[in-house]
Inverse folding.
């Protein structure tokens, strides 16, 4: 590979938060026309490094050079001015504004605004990037994937030299990822340096030139992609040799079901106002099943209907064969159902509350308004689950929003485990989470199942589903189109069913 | 009510920690005001024991005035804190609602006659009726906010506009006067006790809310709803109910304040009673360092905030500031306080503390 000009140089970056040293002496170098992966586990400091670079956080120490000139960046506006654009993991656009407004917000000069021209420009950019959205459409009405692509379009359009993509693919399906990669490659041709943060190893090896690995806020090293096989990358990220991820299903004994046991949960013709067709569903004691299908096929809507999270407009529900009424989440909780929602930030965490309060929340609700846990009890439970799930937090008093994504997810998981559910629904529990935690969660699911808990597992990663589930319900266009189990569980078979294979 | 860590820290580290503490701003403001008055006129702090017209012992002095009038505000601050935390907005109809509940009390006490010789109903009955009415109006506000998703300030604007007319209508626009002396106890003095009664009423309210916050999950639920409604719902909470509940509790606080207000005069002036008190109550919440966008709250800080606001008002009166000009002076002080309690300024001070620390450390080394 021929050496191109150094575009961005970060040297000796330090950053600490109360109780946490997020970055210690981190160096980072980006050449122009390079796609550079930034890898590390949750809490390794990837997001912090990005936020320091883009001026969201001030750095404690260190220097940043852009094209060999030292730059100081105090705010995202500064970063934009010098040509550093970012698309964050979580969508940071305004859902109540139009797509065009979102693309041009904060970028206009002067006081006038030519709305017509803005809409036309936006339409052109959207078209050239093949994004299925109208310029005048309200952003909130687009799917998450499209919102993400609009965010990328916005960044791309800002004549950037350095484009940072922080977990851009976590909510995109494969076709959309392909489109994004095409876009990234064409930007690379133009000499843009791209920093790509992701948890998907396959994607790194598909599109990147170099990898920088961080661990616990420290630099592990910078590697050319050809010199670093996957196994070694994982080892570097974890700081230890990883044993094979593949076979965890065999680790746990399967739960022995008695003959004549009725399903733990059974739904017939269940339908909610979220636009799914009525569906039938059942789960046995100690079973792990899953909903699969493309993004937007109605996977989440199904489990939300089971949990009573959306308004139920039809169908009957039975628990152990007895009819029960579930019209709101509390009903479901009282029937021993727990639900870890898809969107952690919006539906999961209660940001400003402490880790402790976040853990006890659901159990507290079940206990009732007039019976709060005492401080000592709450602390004991919090400490117990922090230890059990090895949640990385400064203390139980730390606000949950200051934890890394994976640890936030563990807290939400702890919250539901604390209610000792009979039936646990996990909707994308491993999205945006590092491999170590992913395997932890998968193992936990199988362990719970072996102890008799029923689990419904949803994931966009097919091999993860195949590793954990013994039965898959396949969805297409908001209806259940098939059910696979035993020998039928294979990638090819799932694909075939999703695609509406020729039977 | 959050406990502070008891770690030993250096002086500058302590300063940083202190500045971050939510109680810091209201307490510092209190200290500053006290200091100012001490310099201008130490007589401000004089409290004397005298006798009122009825020959009962009463304490008097500026501090007693603060205790007296600050108590109304403290009672309202309790409810306003909960409303702010749960709904992320404020109730601006508090003054009008006080007029309504005061009017209800007078109506029940007077019956048909506007100047009765004797009370037509026990005071407790009148008060309870006022409680129910005020809670209903609270529920009305709460329902608009929770179920119709109207901005709290806009939703309560309705009652803010209509409230005083409703209050006048309740008594057919007459001005009832209560001659019964025992009615004046609630806004004045109970014979034999030299401390103004509103203080005791406030104390009762504080004790009740402290018990409620301890014995129930009101704090957790309110905060969860205020921070993230969507995830609260998925955890089995009913966010609408919690919001309405916060407005109903504020209604109860309003009824108590209404009792004090009409008792002070033994009559009511519909257009003037408790005018602009909602702004002071909101200020108390803000001064207590509670985010006005909802979420976490600190009840003690709000209550202290209420007394600080009254301290400020009384100080300005003492300086013979014209009552017309009062709001302008208040605004200046408020700007300073609010800016001081802004997170950016707090961070700056914390950073300053850190700097001092590192400087002193390098001096030691050098």
């Amino acid at each position: 590979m021929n050496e191109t000009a150094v575009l961005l140089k970060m040297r000796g970056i330090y950053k600490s938060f109360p109780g946490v040293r997020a970055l210690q002496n981190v160096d980072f170098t980006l050449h122009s026309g390079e796609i550079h992966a930034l890898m590390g586990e949750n809490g390794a400091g990837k997001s912090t490094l990005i936020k320091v670079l883009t001026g969201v956080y001030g750095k404690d120490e260190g220097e940043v050079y852009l094209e060999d000139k030292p730059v100081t960046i105090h705010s995202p506006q500064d970063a934009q001015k010098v040509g550093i654009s970012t698309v964050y993991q979580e969508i940071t656009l305004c859902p109540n504004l139009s797509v065009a407004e979102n693309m041009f917000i904060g970028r206009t000069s002067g006081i006038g605004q030519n709305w017509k021209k803005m809409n036309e420009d936006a339409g052109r950019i959207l078209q050239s990037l093949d994004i299925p959205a109208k310029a005048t459409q309200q952003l909130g009405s687009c799917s998450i994937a499209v919102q993400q692509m609009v965010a990328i379009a916005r960044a791309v359009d800002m004549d950037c030299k350095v484009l940072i993509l922080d977990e851009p693919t976590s909510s995109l399906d494969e076709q959309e990822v392909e489109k994004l990669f095409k876009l990234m490659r064409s930007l690379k041709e133009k000499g843009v340096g791209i920093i790509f943060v992701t948890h998907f190893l396959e994607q790194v090896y598909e599109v990147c030139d170099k990898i920088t690995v961080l661990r616990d806020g420290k630099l592990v090293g910078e590697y050319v992609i050809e010199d670093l096989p996957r196994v070694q990358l994982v080892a570097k990220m974890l700081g230890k040799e990883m044993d094979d991820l593949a076979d965890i299903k065999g680790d746990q004994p399967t739960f022995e079901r008695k003959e004549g046991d009725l399903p733990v949960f059974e739904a017939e013709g269940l339908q909610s106002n979220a636009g799914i067709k009525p569906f039938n569903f059942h789960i046995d004691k100690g079973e792990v099943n899953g909903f699969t299908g493309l993004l937007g096929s109605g996977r989440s809507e199904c489990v939300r209907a089971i949990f009573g999270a959306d308004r139920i407009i039809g169908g009957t529900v039975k628990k152990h064969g007895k009819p029960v009424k579930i019209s709101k989440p509390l009903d479901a909780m009282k029937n021993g159902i727990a639900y870890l929602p898809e969107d952690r930030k919006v539906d999961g965490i209660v940001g400003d509350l402490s880790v402790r309060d976040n853990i006890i929340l659901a159990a507290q609700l079940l206990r009732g308004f007039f019976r709060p846990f005492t401080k000592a009890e709450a602390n004991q439970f919090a400490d117990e689950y922090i230890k059990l799930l090895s949640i990385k937090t400064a203390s139980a008093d730390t606000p949950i929003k200051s934890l890394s994504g994976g640890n936030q997810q563990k807290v939400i998981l702890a919250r539901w485990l604390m209610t000792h559910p009979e039936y646990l629904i996990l909707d994308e529990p491993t999205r945006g989470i590092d491999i170590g935690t992913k395997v932890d969660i998968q193992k936990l699911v199988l362990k719970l199942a072996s102890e008799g808990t029923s689990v419904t597992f949803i994931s966009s990663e097919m091999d993860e589903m195949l590793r954990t589930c013994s039965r898959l319900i396949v969805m297409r266009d908001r209806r259940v189109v098939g059910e696979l189990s035993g020998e039928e569980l294979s990638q090819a078979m799932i694909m075939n069913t999703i695609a509406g294979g020729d039977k | 009510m959050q406990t502070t860590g008891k770690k030993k820290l250096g002086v500058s580290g302590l300063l940083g920690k202190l500045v971050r503490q939510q109680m810091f701003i209201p307490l510092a403001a209190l200290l500053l005001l006290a200091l100012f008055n001490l310099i201008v006129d130490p007589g401000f702090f004089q409290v004397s024991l005298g006798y009122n017209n009825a020959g009962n012992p009463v304490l008097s002095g500026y501090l007693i005035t603060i205790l007296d009038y600050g108590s109304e505000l403290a009672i309202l601050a309790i409810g306003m804190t909960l409303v702010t935390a749960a709904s992320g907005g404020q109730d601006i109809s508090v003054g009008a609602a006080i007029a309504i509940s005061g009017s209800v009390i007078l109506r029940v006490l007077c019956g048909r006659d506007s100047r009765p010789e004797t009370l037509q109903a026990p005071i407790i009955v009148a008060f309870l009726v006022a409680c129910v009415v005020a809670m209903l109006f609270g529920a009305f506000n709460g329902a608009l906010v929770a179920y119709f998703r109207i901005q709290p300030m806009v939703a309560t604007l309705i009652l803010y506009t209509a409230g005083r007319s409703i209050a006048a209508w309740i008594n057919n626009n007459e001005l009832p006067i209560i001659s019964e002396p025992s009615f004046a106890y609630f806004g004045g003095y109970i014979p034999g006790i030299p401390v103004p009664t509103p203080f005791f009423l406030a104390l009762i309210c504080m004790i009740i809310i402290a018990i409620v916050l301890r014995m129930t999950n009101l704090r957790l639920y309110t905060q969860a709803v205020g921070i993230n409604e969507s995830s609260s719902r998925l955890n089995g909470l009913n966010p609408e109910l919690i919001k309405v509940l916060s407005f109903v509790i504020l209604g109860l606080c309003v009824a108590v304040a209404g009792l004090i207000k009409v008792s002070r005069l033994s009559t009511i002036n519909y257009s003037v009673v408790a005018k602009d008190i909602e702004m002071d109550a909101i200020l108390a919440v803000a001064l207590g360092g509670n985010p006005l966008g909802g979420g976490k709250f600190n009840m003690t800080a709000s209550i202290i905030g209420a007394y600080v606001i009254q301290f400020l008002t009384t100080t300005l009166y003492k300086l013979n500031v014209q009552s017309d000009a009062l709001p302008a002076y208040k605004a200046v002080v408020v700007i300073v306080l609010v800016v001081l309690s802004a997170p950016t300024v707090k961070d700056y001070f914390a950073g300053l503390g850190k700097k001092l620390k590192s400087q002193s450390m390098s001096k030691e080394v050098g």
